[in-house]
Every structure is written in structure tokens, then in C-alpha cells.
Amino acid sequence: MPSDSGSPPPHMPRTDSPVFGPEHIAHILRLCVGAVCVGMLIWLLGDVLMVVFASVLCAVVLYGLSSILRRHIGLSHAWALSIVVLALLSSAALLVWNSGPSIVSEAIRLQEALRQQEMALRDTLQGSPTGQMILNYLPASLGGHHTGGDSGLANLGSRIAGSMTGILGSAFGAIGTLLVVLIAGLYFAMSPATYANGLLRLVPEERRPIIRQLLLRAGQTLWAGVAGQSLDMLVVGTLSGIGLWFIGVPLALALGVLAGMCNFIPYIGAIMGAVPALLLALSLGTRETIMVAVLYSVIQFFEGNVLAPLIQRHAVQMPPALTVLSQTLFGAILGFPGLIFASPLTAVLLAILDSLTKPLAETDRI
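^ that's the sequence the OP posted. Answer follows.
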């Protein structure tokens, strides 16, 4: 029997109560104001924040390696960290002593060969109507004729290219920044609890347990991500160098090292590492160019479908679309350093959000 009271049936929601009350609106406003303030802080102090984040990343690597020694050998943290630092410094010194001149020579030859191939490719494009159309739409930072600043993509490319030019052109600035990152990272790794506890003192007492949990989760995420990506870079660089040497491409060692380093940047880094090899292969002939393209395609297929899933079982899993979008966002805001550190930054943010939010119930999933 229908009810005569005029109230809605039990299965229908009431519409007389507001969905968003004053407290919800105030909470949303606070979140918006906080997001705007954080965005302005990142925009104004982006370079400094990138140096701080790179130092923290360095500290996480040093602390993680020393933790492995402590766990297997039973040394104190100070001794384990000292052994790790001495081992890394000795390896770097040995590499510079034995292979330093050849590495510098390979890098110079690679730079000169790429410059010659770039000029030859531009001359080839200028000799055909299709090539001239490509050059007209290609940004000037990439060798084209387009100088307009209205396109957001062109603006992003110009900013990234400008950051790369600044980093490569100023040896003192790059070396000075690297020294600051290494020294600060070493101090962070020597006594991470000191800095973490100092940060916790700035937090209200009732919020300290959750912030402590978030700091620990962020550190574990960074260590897992860096360890997994380092293994990925080593495998990709080794396979690229061996494959290029087998094909007969000159400077195979330098190109393999470049491919491994670029692979620190997911997806975009694979393209960045393949372009120099393809440019050099063009000087050898069409057959070698096709073989190099096939080589890099096979390596990236293996990395994306075999190696990365194995690594992600113990590391950080990020959706591919989110990874690419985060690279675009951080690259636009922070320039080339933001593009490099986009993946670890996104991984930390995802880990923090995962700790702050409850999992979806089965009935709420799409």
C-alpha cells in the first residue's frame, strides 16, 4: 500500500537535503587555495625544488645501498655508508682513469657526427616540397623554421631545449649543481632521521603519525623505483650497445650508454635514445637504418612486455597514460629537470594519495 505521508519510497534518496553543505564548500575552497599556493611555489622555486628532490633521491640511493650491507654483513650505518661511498668513488675514479679519455673522445665524435647528420637531413628536407612543409612547422629549437610562440607544444619544446642548452653550455653550473646534489644527498643519507624528525616537529602533534607514515612510504617508493629503473637502464643500454656494434654502427658504446641513460625517462626517453642512432645509421645506408629501427623496436618491446612487468612486481606500477601526462605537466612547469624527474615525482604522489585514501569497494568500481 502506498504511504499517505508524502515521503519518498525507501529506495529513493531524499532531495530536500543539500548534497554540499557549508562545511563541504569550505573544505573545497581550502583545497583550491592550497593547490594554488603550492602551484605558485613550484613555479617560482622550481629549480631549487628540483635540486632538493635530486638530493633526496641521491640520499635514498645511498641509504638503500647501505641498508643492504647492514642487512647482509651486520655493519653499523656509518660503516656501511662509508663503504658504499668509497666503492662508488673508487668505481668512478677507475672509470675516469681507464676510460675517461676514450669516453670524452666518443662523446665529442658523437656530437660532431650528429651535427653533420642534422645538417645533411635539413638539406635533404629543404630539397623537396614535403620537407619544406615539415621544416615550416618544426620549431626553431629543433632545427625548423617555425618561430611562433602561440603554440603550447612549441613553447614547451623551446623551454626544454633552452634548459638543455643551459645545462650543456654551462659546465660550471652543471658541475656545481651536481656537487651540491651529491654533498646534500650524502648529508641526508648520513642522518635521515635528523631531517625527518625536524620536519615532523613543524607538523601539529595530532597529524604527526600520518605524516610519519607518508614519509616512510615515500622513501620506500623512491628506493623501489630507482632500483627498478637502474636495472632497466642497464639492460637496455647493454642490449643497445651490443646490437649497434653487431650491425656496424659507429660509436656503438657511446650510443648504448646514451640509450641506457635516456631510458630513465619512460617512453619519451626511448625515442630520445633512438634518434641519435638512427641519424648515424642514415650515413651508412637504408639497410642499416632499417636494422637499427628494428633493433630499438625489439628492445623496447622486450623492455615494455617482459622486463618492465618483472621489475614492477617489486617496484612502482604507474599507468602509461598517467606517466606520459605527468612528463608533459612537469616538463612544462619545471623544464628539462621536471621531465627527468617526472616519473619518481609521480610515483611519490601516487603512493601518498594511496595512503591517504581508502580502496574502492567492489560495488563502487566501474
